[in-house]
Amino acid sequence: MLRVEMIQAGQGDCIWIEYGEESGDLHRILIDGGVSGTYKTVKKRIEALPADQRHFDLLVITHIDGDHIAGILKLFEEKSLSISFDDIWFNAYRHLGRVSRSKSIRQAEKLSNYLEQASLNWNKAFNGKAVCVDKRKKSTVVTLSGGMEITLYSPTKKALSDLKPDWTKAIIKAGISPFLRAFETETAEPDEAVMPALPLPDLKVLAESRSDKDSSLTNGSSIAFVAGYEGKKMLFSGDAHADILLNSIKREHPDCEPLYLDLFKVPHHGSDGNVTKKLLERIRCSRYLVSTNGAQHHHPDRVAMARLICYGGHQPDIYFNYLSAYTEVWRDARLQKQYRFTAHYPQEDAEGISIVFNNEKTENKKI
Predict the structure, then answer these.
(1) How far is 217 from 164, CA to CA, in rounded Å?
(2) The predicted structure's pLDDT at residue 27
């Protein structure tokens, strides 16, 4: 069994993965924790587990943006859940380049302070060093308990190094400073008034639109990887830059060989600067996850969606974890029929949407 659940996480990411035997040896991975309000949902999911099963083989905190990390901060503040992790992947200041002797920055890293506890394994698979791609090697593969294979695609050492000068500014923005609370306002719903009714878009024209590349240094530092289990391959991209992902694909699959996937969580919540034609042309996939409610940055961008539909394979299935002003346009039956794609949404009272691979079904999960 393999289940991927995209928990509603505001404009952010929170992905809960289960694999193995439901009646016996079941394994779990958690990728990011969304905004601070997401923690309530994650806590309910954990509390629903028997106390002796509140264990994760891996926790991945992709990068320090508040819509990925804020819920994780609350998770570590909670003392009653008795959760444990085989490994936690997170790149802190110490991993951005040459180790600084000064502790002034690290002391401002609220999450790092938690991870420094002796009982927690931090980047264990990388011997405590940075979780990053070594361009001199073909691949960095980590095999988890239960047989899940993780192939790292992002970040590069350069992307981590580029973030170092702006680290302090970035952690304050993300709400990691011990003097600031993680953003409480990030759970706000999108403003319906700023998304006026528009005619159905011409997707072929939109798909060819020019976009500026994502220049965010924190997004460039995002951990992204391909997870493989029992013949299924899934790319979890965080907010990774398209060119970093593309370069990893080229390194793993030379001679223009495409990357075949069963699931692709699109980077940066469907931003047109991260979902590029060149990237999609090197991927063969028919299922895409888009994680956002559209708050603040109004994702997913229509240009990015047009590219998914036009270059994302034959009759792609696109899964949204919210029905919002910014995702509802793709619900239109005429648009789906004309461009041969299917949009999936959670039930009205659900707090997540899941794909289960043992029988290829979709669940609109009520938590």
Answers:
(1) 9
(2) 96
Return mean pLDDT, the chain.
Answer: 86
CATH architecture of 2-363: 4-Layer Sandwich (3.60)
Q: Which of 152, 127, 125 is nearest to 138 (CA)?
A: 152
Predicted pLDDT at 24: 73
pLDDT in tens, 312-324: 999 999 999 999 9
User: Do residues 171 and 267 touch, judged by C-beta distance below 8 A?
Assistant: no
Which residue from 223, 194, 186 is spatially nearest to 8, judged by alpha carbons? 186
Contact 189, 293 (CB under 8 A): yes
* Alpha-carbon gap, residue 7 to 258, rounded angstroms: 29
**Cα distance between residue 80 and residue 160, in whole Å:** 34
Cβ contacts of 26 within 8 Å, gap of 6 or more: 1, 18, 19, 20, 53
Q: Report how far apart, in Å, the C-alpha atoms of 134 and of each of 131, 137, 225, 246 are.
A: 10, 6, 13, 15
Distances 112 to 51, 94, 171, 180 between C-alpha atoms, Å: 26, 10, 11, 15
Which of 215-242 are b and which e, b meaning 16 or more Cβ less than 10 Å from the residue's Cβ? ebbbbbbbbbbbbbbeeebbbbbbbbbb
Going by DSSP bridges, is the β-strand pair 58-60/88-89 parallel, antiparallel, or unpaired?
A: parallel
317-320, strands of its sheet edge to edge: 141-143, 149-154, 224-229, 232-236, 263-265, 287-290, 317-320, 342-344
Kindly write down the DSSP assignment for every residue of 162-194, as one continuous string.
Answer: HHGGGHHHHHHHHT-STTSPPPSGGGPPP-GGG
The pLDDT tens digits for 254-286 are 888 999 999 999 999 999 999 999 999 999 999
The answer to whether 73 and 111 are in contact (CB under 8 A) is yes
3-state helix, strand, coil in the chain (%, to 5): 30, 20, 45
- How far apart (Å, rounded) are the C-alpha atoms in residues 322 and 299? 11
Query: Which two structure tokens, joined as six digits, stand for 291?
Result: 């994680």
**Phi, psi of 281, rounded to the nearest 5 degrees:** -70, -20
Give residues with Cβ within 8 angstroms of 38, minimum separation 6. 7, 8, 9, 10, 12, 14, 70, 71, 187
Q: Is the whole-model pTM more than 0.85?
A: yes
